[in-house]
Write a structure and sequence with these properties.
This protein is of the alpha+beta class and 158 residues long. The protein is 48% helix and 25% strand. Strands 1-2-3 form a three-stranded antiparallel beta sheet. The model is unreliable at 1-8 (pLDDT under 50).
């Protein structure tokens, strides 16, 4: 039997893993989501817990990253909540107005929660993870090219 500490740490690890998967689903392109569902076919039928909808969320910012919070503006989001035939519920929020993509992401979230399908869903998420990593590497490389190392500058004192 697991101790309460093990249950808590396993729960936190599982929660963090699901949050990571949901973050990837939120940033996946519509075509990538469709390809994942095709790869995982046959997928159990899904019914909407609530109809997919579009709404607004308030974006908050902080001056300097740690200053007082302020309202930055609003962003459009699409959200979906589904229940699969087996009973698993999936949820998704995505920037933009694409409710079809939000519903697909919610279905994939529900599939991820099935321990028997989790590995297959993680494998299907690999191309998205690789694309996002490549994009982040490109941004880092572009930023590094503009870095100035002030310690190597020569002072002109004679």
């Amino acid at each position: 039997m697991q101790s309460p500490e093990q249950k808590t740490s396993d729960g936190n690890a599982s929660r963090a893993a699901r949050q990571g998967a949901m973050a990837l689903l939120a940033r996946a392109e519509t075509g990538e989501l469709d390809a994942m569902l095709a790869r995982l076919a046959p997928v159990p039928s899904a019914s909407d817990l609530k109809p997919p909808e579009v709404g607004l969320v308030m974006l908050r910012g902080r001056t300097g990253g740690d200053g007082a919070p302020f309202n930055l503006g609003e962003a459009t989001v699409a959200r979906a909540a589904v229940r699969l035939e087996g009973g698993a519920a999936g949820f998704a929020y995505r920037l933009g107005r694409d409710v079809r993509a939000a519903r697909a992401a919610a279905i994939l979230d529900a599939l991820w929660q099935d321990a028997g399908r989790r590995a297959a869903v993680e494998d299907a998420l690999a191309p998205v993870r690789e694309r996002l990593s490549a994009e982040a590497d490109a941004v880092r490389a572009e930023t590094a090219a503009t870095k100035v190392d002030f310690f190597t500058l020569v002072r002109g004192e004679d």
